[in-house]
Design goal:
Order of helices and strands: HEHEHEHEHEE
Number of strands: 6
Oligomer: single chain
Number of domains: 1
Mean pLDDT: 82
CATH superfamily: Phosphoglycerate mutase-like
Helix content: 40-55%
Strand content: 15-25%
CATH topology: Rossmann fold
Distance between the termini: 25 Å
Largest sheet: 6 strands, mixed
Shape: globular
Length: 191
C-alpha cells in the first residue's frame, strides 16, 4: 500500500511540476514580449481507456481496468481538472465511460462524450475555446490518442498506446510551444 501511495504522490508531483515549469517558462516569455499578464498554459491529460475484459465488441473493463480507472481518479484528483472528455466510436461505448466514471464521481463533473472519434478537430477546438489556461482530461481509444496529441500540436511519437498504463500530458503554451510528457500510472505493463 505504501509503495502505491508513493507512486501516486510521485505522478501527482510530476504533473504539478510540469504545470509549474510551463507557467514559469510562459512568465519569462511574456516578460520578453511586453505583455502585462502571462497566459496560463493549457494542459491536456490524454490516455487510452483502462484495461478491457475481452477482445471482441463493446466489452466492459476487466477487474484490472476497474482498478486502473480508480487509480486514474486518485492521480488526477488534485490536478485541477476543469473538464472531462470521452472520445468514442459509438454512443454505447462502455470502456471510455467506465474509465471516466470514478474521476467524474469524485469531482462531481459530468464528462462530455464526443461520439465521432474520427473528428478530433471538434475536441481540440472545444478545448482551445472553452478551457484555455486550464487542465482537461481526455479518455479515448488506442487509435485516436496519438491523433489527438498531433492535432493539439504535440509530437505524437512521444506517447505510445500499446499498453493501458500510459498517461500523456500535453502542455500548450501561449507562444505555440507544445510539450508532451509520457507517464505511467496504475499497474505497470510491458508492451
Amino acid at each position: 500500500m505504501e509503495q502505491g501511495l508513493t507512486r501516486w504522490i510521485s505522478v501527482a508531483s510530476i504533473i504539478a511540476s510540469l504545470m509549474m515549469s510551463a507557467a514559469v517558462t510562459l512568465n519569462g516569455a511574456w516578460a520578453q514580449t511586453g505583455s502585462d499578464q502571462p497566459e496560463a498554459p493549457t494542459t491536456v491529460i490524454i490516455l487510452r481507456h483502462a484495461d478491457k475484459a475481452g477482445t471482441a465488441g463493446n466489452v466492459d473493463l476487466s477487474v484490472a481496468g476497474e482498478i486502473r480507472a480508480r487509480k486514474l481518479a486518485q492521480v488526477c484528483s488534485l490536478s485541477g481538472l476543469a473538464a472531462l472528455y470521452g472520445v468514442t466510436y459509438t454512443g454505447d461505448d462502455l470502456r471510455v465511460r467506465l474509465t471516466l466514471e470514478p474521476i467524474a464521481k469524485l469531482l462531481n463533473v459530468q464528462p462530455t462524450i464526443l461520439l465521432d472519434a474520427n473528428n478530433i478537430h471538434t475536441l481540440v477546438q472545444d478545448i482551445r475555446t472553452k478551457h484555455l489556461g486550464k487542465t482537461v482530461l481526455v479518455v479515448s481509444h488506442s487509435g485516436t490518442v496519438q491523433a489527438i496529441i498531433k492535432t493539439l500540436g504535440g509530437d505524437d511519437t512521444r506517447c505510445s498506446t500499446d499498453t493501458y498504463d500510459n498517461l500523456c500530458v500535453v502542455t500548450m503554451c501561449g507562444l505555440g510551444k507544445v510539450n508532451v510528457l509520457r507517464l505511467k500510472y496504475g499497474a505497470i505493463q510491458s508492451p
